[in-house]
Amino acid sequence: MTAYDTLQNRFRRLHALNEAAGVLHWDMSTMMPSGGAQARTEQLAVLSVTSHELLVDPQMRDLFEAAEQESGLQQDTWRQANLREMRRRWRHATALDADLVEATMKACKSCEMIWREARPKGDFAAVLPALGEVLKLSREAATAKAEVFDCSMYDALLDQYEPGGSSETIDDIFDDLAEFLPHLLSDVLDWQSQKPEPLALEGPFPLDAQEALAREMMQAVGFNFEHGRLDVSLHPFCGGVPDDVRITTRYDSDDFMKALMGVLHETGHALYERGLPQDWRLQPVGEARGMAVHESQSLLIEMQACRSAEFMAFAAPLARQAFGTEGAAWTPENLLAVYNQVKPDFIRVDADEVTYPAHVILRYRLEKALIEDEMPLAELPEAWNEGLGELLGITPPDDSLGCLQDIHWFDGAWGYFPTYTLGAMAAAQLFAAAKAAEPDIPADIAKGDFSRLMAWLGTNVHAKGSLLTTDELLEQATGKSLDVEIFKGYLANRYLN
Amino acid sequence: MTAYDTLQNRFRRLHALNEAAGVLHWDMSTMMPSGGAQARTEQLAVLSVTSHELLVDPQMRDLFEAAEQESGLQQDTWRQANLREMRRRWRHATALDADLVEATMKACKSCEMIWREARPKGDFAAVLPALGEVLKLSREAATAKAEVFDCSMYDALLDQYEPGGSSETIDDIFDDLAEFLPHLLSDVLDWQSQKPEPLALEGPFPLDAQEALAREMMQAVGFNFEHGRLDVSLHPFCGGVPDDVRITTRYDSDDFMKALMGVLHETGHALYERGLPQDWRLQPVGEARGMAVHESQSLLIEMQACRSAEFMAFAAPLARQAFGTEGAAWTPENLLAVYNQVKPDFIRVDADEVTYPAHVILRYRLEKALIEDEMPLAELPEAWNEGLGELLGITPPDDSLGCLQDIHWFDGAWGYFPTYTLGAMAAAQLFAAAKAAEPDIPADIAKGDFSRLMAWLGTNVHAKGSLLTTDELLEQATGKSLDVEIFKGYLANRYLN
């Protein structure tokens, strides 16, 4: 057996263990009774340690060195890319010593628990020491990884979520957006105020009718229930494995749009997973490219394809039928108006498409400053409020609506935030390219037929797995790398029309 | 760290991996869409290989030897028993070389597939070669394990399911029963024919009403839904882990008794798991004692406690309410008569309490003869039909109702069958002892109060884990080892009264 084949076998096992953990996580969020928590924590910890030990096995270095020398590999782009992705995972795993990993896990767990108490009270001071510990350990990890990857501390963390991502590029993009968005927002609010208020949709909307409608929409988009499930969880997510991809939602009896749009979002994630290259299941190169591309697929379905006049023409009659209702509020035009409303607010997860990037830019700038040690952590609340004021013109009344709102930092996920907006931009760019290549896509969507769109995404995005870098993928699919002008044009066009 | 502590850590990890596999199995039977099968097979195979490698690690022998010498262990009965159970698992795992394990897995998988085709056609000849291969490999395993455990080939296989079980003892018990049961059956059929036919229960019984009733009964028996679930699967089972124990059933809209009694049976298994010693979670000594004791707990609840006049007095009004029905068929007396009917039939899983042991004795005698090479496999159908005629006075019209009906042998589970009847006997013996110790148990059950019974079982069976051998457990709980006279007396008393 060649060194490369040995590596493939090891990563196959590693991946299957991670898949097992994924199913256990899904079960924990959807099925597990509360009394199962302790046993589950232990099962997941053992799977995680077992995977980690496989990855940092001292033989791995020799295997990588031998594989690099093996003939034929340079000519085989998939194997070559697989080796690159294996090595990236291995370098991330070996960069940190076991003590730091364990200390970080404990600090995050403890900080997250304190945060859960502190958030509703808006008590940043209460969580400051614990968050300080998490930040300190995250900076240690960043230092270690920066050395291994020969990059900045922030970029070393970003690479965990967005392989090859660069804060230099992000700075340029986000500075441009931060300049543009406040003007756009002001114009959109002006323009919106001149239109009649959309008519309210009167509930309650029975949960079983919401679920049936959601399933109908999922199938229209292309979700195959022989290869996946829809369930309920407190925080919606897309889990499972590519051939058994499991999405969740949460229903609100007063607002069916929330769950429906959430389901369409997760369906976008799910179809990406489903469409990953069949020949490379259980190998690193067969995985999704990164968080930005993943988010581009969910936002392409939710924001680009389904928050459109065409989709509403298809969906409105089905929604009327599902809830046995009718009237002026249920026209496609009114439904579209209802859920394209723009309104600056304090909470990221409730934000609309125009204000969402401001939330992300703020967090990105702050986390970068904290990781690069350019700002004391104690100043975070003040810097947050100031930044939000500049970007959205509003100031949180307290930290529960400010810097305490998201779990990410308190759970040690530094370097994640920018992928949300990079994904939104990529979604706009990919959807424009898809329509340019297949001009019938909008008319198809008006008929509830997503097959042409999904075929284009399948070929140009899903089936690529991690063969290409994110930049290469976008260049091959759309003719250019991530372009801020496309996103700006898209927002202006949608929200000023 | 002592060698013993190192072993405990290793077995803790091993157990957590097995628990993870258990959750994946549960999910596969209840939640997984068909398209997830291939990925799931891979996940389970990797978990299995990973566990096996941990167990057969060459360091284990030294650890066991060192642990045996460590001071203090002899005085600590739980740790001593834990070490004994660790060693038993390790000896089973190391007895077989990897090639035999792999060949057996493949042969079983292939044989099971052929059997699925052959069974409905009653085509024993079609599966004979594949079954021959499975038997050959099972005999090889039996030979290897017999050497390690210094026992007969059959006992080496039996030990996998019933630790310390002995075919010499089973021969004595089963010969006695085989002598007694045909007479009892004839008497019961006579006696039954002199009574009026029970009134039929007219369906259909809506599945949601059946489920609600099943949940009510589970809670009455003591099932805590914060530590478990009830779901649907094709083949009912009890899975999950002790603090998150998951039972399944299958509803038949024409016959609510089937699912209800099935649920009570699985609840007995579940409460055993739940009651295992809390201090020994994830250690071998904290596991259930074996299949016979496990089956004793399910049959104690289903057959001893719930197939009784007392339970029917409690259950009849709830059943009437659940299905919104009444009438003479729904009296406790008639319900009891309906589900205590005795009738010889070809299929084991549908058999009543009086004829069930005959099915088990037949299979035990045949599998022992085959493993000990005392009968050619080709003669199995003839020997089966002859044996069933002797024990039950009926002859299967074809092999689909005969030797092809059960999956066990075709899937490589040789040595399992006797545990069903050993469990039924232990159930009768334990229930008699419980009532002797706590005479109010029957009156409690008539009120739907199982707490006194469960407390007795908790102390005398559940909390013992694998501290004692099955014999010791029965002796301590009931004052004697497994006693065939108690079972005979119980059957005669219940079915001739």
From TrEMBL, chains A, B:
Source organism of this protein record: Denitrobaculum tricleocarpae
Signal peptide from the UniProt entry: none
InterPro entries attached to this UniProt entry: Peptidase_M32_Taq (IPR001333)
Binding site for Zn(2+): 265, 269, 295
Pfam families xrefs: Peptidase_M32 (PF02074)
Active-site residues from the entry: 266
Annotated cofactor note: Binds 1 zinc ion per subunit.
Cofactor (UniProt): Zn(2+)
Example of a GO biological process term: proteolysis
Keywords in alphabetical order: Carboxypeptidase, Hydrolase, Metal-binding, Metalloprotease, Protease, Zinc
Catalytic activity: Release of a C-terminal amino acid with broad specificity, except for -Pro
GO molecular function, one term: zinc ion binding
Protein name as catalogued: Metal-dependent carboxypeptidase
E.C. designation(s): 3.4.17.19
Highest classification ranks of the organism: Bacteria, Pseudomonadati, Pseudomonadota, Alphaproteobacteria, Rhodospirillales
Known role: Broad specificity carboxypetidase that releases amino acids sequentially from the C-terminus, including neutral, aromatic, polar and basic residues.
Top EC category: hydrolase
Family statement: Belongs to the peptidase M32 family.
Domain of life where this protein originates: Bacteria
